[in-house]
């Protein structure tokens, strides 16, 4: 009897949902062959945040260079590829459209299937590039645009069991950083400052009782009010202590709720995903908590936490295997919902 | 020599294939559908119709602006991705000039324009078969444009779907020197785009990566940022 030879799956993935122009090639959903990211941070820093029109203009400048670089590093030709994947949403619509139209044009010329990937599914699947995912699985997705707890019973199955009711965690970080006169993006600065402080200013925690939902706008206002009151009294704030107080509140709420959900749903694995999972304070707290719980915890390396195309390629591989296909009429879906790709 | 032309600078869409100077096929449409959805399927359909594979294309012509920022980026992104991966050049042509070519036979000045809101337009003016440039492609007020056109003392043909928005003003300023193209001339044609591209110098394939739309306006946030910097330096 002849041996069944499995053909390797090579996905070219493209991601342009916000301010990174990225392309990657992923082998069999688990191995990064190349991973290229052109960041716009230097440009967007001028505006203290991402300006959509500027983001779109930069994407057009970078898109073919980034894809070419991904192929070059991988030392591959288009006909070595199995499929092309691209972030379909959520994200900035004008930004998404650059990646999507480049992906469609490329797929058309080389007669490759095209797969539209949900950005958050991508963040979750960044972990498949670290170690195999085990189900049931709980993902804590924290970024500038998202704060969600997602339960996965198998590949391609997503149930959002909790989400933010107002600001995303990363958004709160950026706003507090602005109060402390830190440059954009603020997260890493707050994280660094927080680690320099011994004492913390006490800020409230929003527990929202039984729910797995989150809220960070109250905390953000508390920080702003604190600064305001100190200013009025003519007193100097100690930025390190404010940062620590803020970060302690965010991390404690995120950790406690994730642990509670992991217990309730009896999950085998917990994963962190999204830009804020690069935060040292949060990583350490989750690691310690799940060590105590005896539940496997994975968090992607830093460069896979922020936006990248490798994660899109990882998710797309499982979608490809499940038979998911897009077509040349694919459009950007800025408010795309995280829905199952398995039936 | 086989050309593919892509025009998505405003609401209408046009795609054409020209082989050795002959228009093989052209699609012109003006339906309210987003270019992101329609352009690639339209290119696929057109190439199938003329029985040409993408690898047979020798050059791509694209309307480079001005126009709707998103529309321009969709056309340019598709054009440069196709050109890069097919290793062929991409030639950018002013989207105003493409529109002006619809009035090429007019004996006088041809003024294509796009509404840029708040009584502003993207406009230019050309003359004769060769479309000699009388007024540069620019972004500015409609009043100023009409004053400049008035000084020419020539008959002027207005072309473009947005002309309707300014018709009263145009007549007020120019009276019976103003002519208005009929509706079939208001839609840009990718075959004209290719004809104009053929008259331009052919860029190298290395130029594909750096090809970007000509917006004729910096982004608002950038304009404000520059203003702030100037203030800071004073």
TrEMBL record, chain B:
InterPro entries: ATPase_NBD (IPR043129), Gcp-like_dom (IPR000905), T6A_TsaB (IPR022496)
One Gene Ontology term from the biological process aspect of the record: tRNA threonylcarbamoyladenosine modification
Protein name stated in the entry: tRNA (Adenosine(37)-N6)-threonylcarbamoyltransferase complex dimerization subunit type 1 TsaB
Alphabetized UniProt keyword annotations: Transferase
GO cellular component, one term: cytosol
Stored PANTHER family: TRNA N6-ADENOSINE THREONYLCARBAMOYLTRANSFERASE, TRNA THREONYLCARBAMOYLADENOSINE BIOSYNTHESIS PROTEIN TSAB
Lineage of the organism: Bacteria, Bacillati, Bacillota, Bacilli, Bacillales
Record NCBIfam families: T6A_YeaZ
Gene: tsaB
Gene Ontology molecular functions: transferase activity
Record domain Gcp-like: where: 23-225
Organism expressing this protein natively: Lysinibacillus antri
SUPFAM superfamilies per UniProt: Actin-like ATPase domain (SSF53067)
């Amino acid at each position: 009897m002849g041996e069944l030879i499995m053909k390797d799956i090579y996905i070219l993935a493209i991601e342009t949902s916000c301010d990174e122009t990225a392309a990657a090639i992923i082998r069999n959903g688990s191995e990064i062959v190349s991973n290229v990211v052109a960041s716009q941070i230097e440009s967007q820093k001028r505006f203290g945040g991402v300006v959509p029109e500027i983001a779109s203009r930069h994407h057009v400048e970078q898109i073919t260079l980034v894809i070419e670089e991904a192929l070059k590093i991988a030392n591959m030709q288009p006909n070595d590829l199995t499929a092309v994947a691209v972030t379909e949403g959520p994200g900035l619509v004008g930004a998404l459209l650059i990646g999507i139209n480049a992906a469609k044009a490329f797929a058309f010329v080389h007669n490759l299937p095209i797969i539209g990937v949900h950005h958050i599914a991508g963040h979750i699947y960044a972990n498949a590039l670290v170690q195999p995912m085990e189900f049931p699985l709980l993902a804590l997705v924290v970024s500038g645009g998202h704060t969600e707890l997602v339960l996965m019973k198998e590949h391609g199955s997503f149930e959002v069991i909790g989400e933010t009711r107002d600001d995303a965690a990363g958004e709160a970080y950026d706003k507090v950083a602005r109060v402390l006169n830190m440059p954009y993006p603020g997260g890493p600065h707050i994280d660094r400052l927080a680690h320099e402080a011994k004492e913390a200013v006490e800020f409230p925690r929003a527990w929202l009782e039984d729910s797995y939902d989150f809220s960070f706008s109250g905390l953000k206002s508390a920080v702003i009010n604190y600064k305001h009151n100190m200013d009025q009294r003519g007193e100097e704030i100690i930025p390190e202590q404010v940062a620590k107080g803020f970060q302690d509140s965010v991390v404690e709420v995120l950790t406690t709720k994730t642990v509670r959900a992991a217990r309730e749903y009896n999950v085998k694995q917990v994963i962190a995903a999204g830009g804020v999972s690069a935060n040292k304070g949060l990583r350490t707290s989750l690691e310690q908590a799940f060590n105590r719980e005896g539940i496997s915890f994975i968090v992607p390396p830093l460069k896979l936490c922020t936006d990248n195309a490798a994660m899109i390629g990882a998710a797309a591989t499982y979608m490809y295997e499940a038979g998911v296909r897009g077509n040349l009429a694919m459009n950007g879906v800025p408010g795309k919902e995280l829905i199952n790709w398995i039936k | 020599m086989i050309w593919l032309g892509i025009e998505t600078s405003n609401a209408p869409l046009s795609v054409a294939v020209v082989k050795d100077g002959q228009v093989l096929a052209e699609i012109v449409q003006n339906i309210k559908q987003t270019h992101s959805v329609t352009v690639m399927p339209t290119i696929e359909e057109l190439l199938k119709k003329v029985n040409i594979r993408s690898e047979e294309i020798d050059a791509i012509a694209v309307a480079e602006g001005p126009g709707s920022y998103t529309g321009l980026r969709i056309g340019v992104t598709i054009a440069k991705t196709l050109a890069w991966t097919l290793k062929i050049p991409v030639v950018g042509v002013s989207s105003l000039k493409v529109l002006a070519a619809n009035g090429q036979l007019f004996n006088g000045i041809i003024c294509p324009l796009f509404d840029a809101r708040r009584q502003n337009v993207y406009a230019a003016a050309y003359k004769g078969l060769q479309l000699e440039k009388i007024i540069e492609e620019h972004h500015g007020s409609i009043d100023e444009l009409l004053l400049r056109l008035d000084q020419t003392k020539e008959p002027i043909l207005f072309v473009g779907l947005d002309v309707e928005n300014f018709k009263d003003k145009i007549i007020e300023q120019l009276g019976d020197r103003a002519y208005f193209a009929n509706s079939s001339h208001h839609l840009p044609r990718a075959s004209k785009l290719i004809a104009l591209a053929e008259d331009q110098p052919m860029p190298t394939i290395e130029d594909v990566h750096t090809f970007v739309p000509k917006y004729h306006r910096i982004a608002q946030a950038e304009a404000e940022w520059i203003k702030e910097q100037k203030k800071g330096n004073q």
